[in-house]
Amino acid sequence: MNINTIIQKDPSHPSLGKRATTLRLLLAFVLAVSSLVSLAPAASAATFTPAELDSPLNNPFKGWAPPATGGPYAQPHKLVYAGVTWKELEPTKGVFDWNAIETKFKFDYWRSQGVRVVFRLLLDNPTGSAHRDIPDWLYNEMLTQEGTAGTAYQDNTGGMGTGNNTGFSPNYSSSILLARHKVLLDAIAARYYTQDAPIAFVQIGSLGHWGEFHTWPYVGPNNEQNYTGAFPPNAISNQFIQHYIDAFSNKSDRIQVMIRRSVQLASTHGLGMFNDMFGDQPSFDSSWGWYTGTQNGYWDDIGQLQPAYANFWNNAISAGEFYGGAGGLQASLTSGAGFTETMRQAELSKPSWLGPNSPASYAVGGPYQANMDTLKKRMGYHLVVKQVTHNDSAASGSSLSVSLSIENKGLQHFPFNWPVELQIRSGSTVVARTITDIQLKNWKTGTYAHTNSITIPSSLAAGNYTVALAILDPATNTPAVDFSNTGRTTDGAFPVSTINVTSGTGGGGGGTSIVVDGSASDWSAIPALASGSSSVATLKGTRVDSNLYLLVQGSGLTDSGAFYINADNNTATGYNATGWPNSGADYLLENNTLYAYTGTGNSWSWNQVATLGTSQYAKNASVVEIGLPLSAIGVSSGQTIRVGYILAGSVAERLPGESGTLPALEL
């Protein structure tokens, strides 16, 4: 617009001459500034489409589960199977030989390979020679005190499979057996519910031959009834199942329980299921088949009507093993009718893994490789990052909102809610990270949209950076699951986009001055770490030079509250406050007093280490503000800490909410 045009709109205005000159200069300045602003690049949304990788992945909890006693195997795998007999686990009453079990099944080796264990406790494991799989001391107690311990059998008819199968079917109705079984299950759960324990799935294997919920055939060659042992009715078998449920009911975040038959307790408690005859059509969906029974209910081998457990895979894991030994395995993988039937069963029953009878030992590149890859890719989960959207640039110290579109092309969901981390990287260095609120177990087959924010460190230099995703193994806190995208980094993360970081006005490195005075006005440019209720509305943190500043805004804050600081960014150490099982707080700042944690877990053990002065602490009804040297909590600039706040007297009033992990603050 022409300046003279603006002035000439009112030529009759008094004192136009001198004032017109002034107005011309003023308008010239305004338009010049406007011109400069219009030339400055504004952040705009950018969309990225990461390249997809069209191949099977060797990921946790899916694929093949060969015997743990063997290996290494030619085909990549992340699971092994351990069929453990009671006799070898508890050879002496009350003395559990964990070392022998873990040595035999190579727990340390498989743990070092990132391989998890499918564990099945066996009371009756038929083999080619006479034996018992319950301990001798238990057999003798049952025989002496109850008059019977069970039935020794030998099947020469081939009814239990090829060759002779010999063993001992215990008396499942024995009160001694039931009582000691509960003690055993509780011991197993206590032993293996730890962060680094390799067991991921426990199959209910206490009932029947091979733990398969049957003692078939029931009639021998001379018309002997139940000659391979009597299978118990629901009133008895339910007690064995309940022992598993009780032992592992609060451990499903690391260990999932599975069962072969769809009894009432299975659906009531959401157990996973396994099919030990996978690939065989009559055993799958004939009138008595495994799939038919799970979806419609069935009459079991001893005349009991068992309920349906339809679509169990929506909330639990489906798995199994190939039928018929080596012959059934090859038939299931041979192109034509065999492999067509295998894929049909996979699509219907949605298995995540198959074993111990599996092709893990087949040579790579052999005649079955293409079909094996097709099946393995489809089994379980198969996550593809389809699209990523965020601003093409962002200032240091600001919060970047990242929208993700991720497709699960597999048949199943991920079995556990492992943390999904959003990262900003400079080459191989992670310069910012945050744990998203993605719930992996909810990602069934289909496409999912998710938006999460990550704070760009205020001290981060201007330049181009990479945005990446990583699914972390809680046992190691490192990336452990591959997306089906190209570009995987050496540490297991997946770059999905790029961001141009510009110089900002954040608090790191002295860019912003914070005065601890009970006012939040000087925090306006600093993004929130977490937001919540009206009582505890906003949590912020920043570094200015060598000092850490923290702010909480809300209402009613004159009551005592406390900041929890995870100074070493390690959730495995420090205090775990109620509702924050992974908070790992090393320091607590309550009012103007700083305490260091000296206990473990959630024991209340704190030592006072400092008292803040009036220039370091301010509190009123709407603001709590603190400032302290980084050295007071043993950190320095460039490190990552985690921070939370709880308003005293109401653990519900906290930031973050009960997420388990405190938000990260890059210093």
Could you explain how this protein is built, in words?
The relative contact order is 0.08. The chain has 14 helices and 34 strands. The strands form seven sheets. An eight-stranded parallel sheet has the order 2-13-12-9-8-7-4-3. Strands 26, 27, 28, 29, 32, 33 and 34 form a seven-stranded antiparallel sheet that branches. The protein is of the alpha+beta class and 667 residues long. The protein is elongated.
Uncertain stretches of 5 or more adjacent residues: 1-41, 505-511
The gyration radius over C-alpha positions equals: 32 Å
List the strand order in the largest sheet: 2-13-12-9-8-7-4-3
Q: Could you give the distance between the termini? A: 48 Å
User: Helix fraction?
Assistant: 10-25%
Q: In terms of structural class, how would the helical and strand content be classed?
A: alpha+beta
Q: How would you sum up the major sheet? A: 8 strands, parallel
Fraction in beta strands: 25-35%
Structure annotation, total helices: 14
